[in-house]
Structure formats: C-alpha cells, structure tokens
Specification:
Layout (H helix, E strand, L loop, with lengths): L8 H17 L3 H44 L5 E5 L2 E4 H27 L2 H10 L5 H30 L9 H28 L16 H32 L2
Antiparallel strand pairs: 1-2
Amino acid sequence: MGCEGLVDPAVLFIYGLVLTLVLFIDRDALSLALIGVPNAIVGFALGWRKYKVLIALFLIGFAGLAINALLLTNVGPAVLVVGPLIVRAGAVNTFITIGLRITGIAGVAFLFVSLVDPALTIRSLERELRLPKGVCFALAYALRLVDLMSKDLREVQGVRVLRGYRSVPITPTDIKSVLTPLLSVGYERALWVGIAAELRGFRLRKVSKEPLRIGWKEAIVLTLLALQILIALAGMLGYLWLVVPYTFH
C-alpha cells in the first residue's frame, strides 16, 4: 500500500507514534540525543523545501525555552556568569533535555508529513491498522492542513510587508497579528470540510480490511524503530540507576 517507492503510511504512522511516546517518556539526555538528533536532521532536511517557515519558527521557539528554563529551573551550581545573569546547572539540564525532546518529536513529525500522501494515508490506516474512520479522517486533514497553513502563513506575511510591518513575528503583538487570521481561517476551513464530508456520506462509507504489508523498506523502518526503543530503554535504565538513588540519598 502507498506510493511507489515510498514506505507504507501505516508503518510510518507506527514509527512516528511510537517514537513520539518514547521521546516523551525518556529523560536521559544521551539517549534523547541519539534518537532525536538523527530524526531531526532527516526530518528537517526532507521538510525544508515545503515547511521552511515552520522550521524557522520552531527554531526561534528555543529562545522561549531558554527563558523558561532560566525562570523556572535555574538552580544548582553556577555554570555560566554573564554580568548579573547567573546560569545554573538546573536551567542548562532542562534546556538540553526538553530541547532534545521537542527537536526529536518535530523531526519525526516533519519526516512523516514529508513522506506520506493524505489520501493514501487515510486508506492505509483504515484498511491495515483498523483505526476508526473519524481518527483517520482527522489525521489526513491535519496532514493536508500543514500545507494549507504554510500557504496561509506566507500570505499573511505578504500582507504584513505591504502594510509596512516585519514579515517574521518577533514581539507578542506580531505573533498575535499572525496567529489570529491563521486560526480564523483554519476554523472556517475545518467547519466546511466537516460539512462537506458528511454531505458526501463519509460516516456511511464501508471500509475493506487488508493485512499490513511488510516489504524490505518497511522492515528497515521497523528495525530502526526497534533499535531506537532499545537505546531509549538503556537510557531510562541508566537514568534510574544514577539519578533516582541520588535523589533519595
């Protein structure tokens, strides 16, 4: 199932879902780096042409992550002193751990949306994974929405430039002026897509079942998934072995 030359969307969905859960659970920086960085490199490379604006905004968000780490977890021995600013070990650890986690999750997401076709994905998930039609439709619509929102964002940026404002949002006012039209258009689009699907009898459509087909490409993806799960398990065991006894000492 799937496009010629591409991995089965159902297998890519399993890969992305399981890795996202693993990255959420894992708290060891080394295993997060071993899993997150390679997926981020591949995902960002595949998605850069179509989603460069979203990737740029994601990278800008690390500034907010650094500020939150300094405000909430800046405890422990000092690591860096810049004038009145003292950066402590707690803030550094939080920034590295959460940064690696969200980087890996974003990389997996961009990898998935770059390799699958929404129409093929909904059929594959319905027929091979037996997921409910509503879930498959929502996922396929979300995949399609990524492209549409990228186009909407470029149009909003163009309008901002014509009005004499900066194209890239920096201040909270800039972000609000960009998000408000995007959310408004997205809500209106989702409403009418749902109405159109119901009018076409989406709820009454029957779905044929098919076995999950595992070719050599799917076998490689699942092998990589298993390897990364083992890395995460090793990292979590190491974290429990080193950190937990020290915490209760």
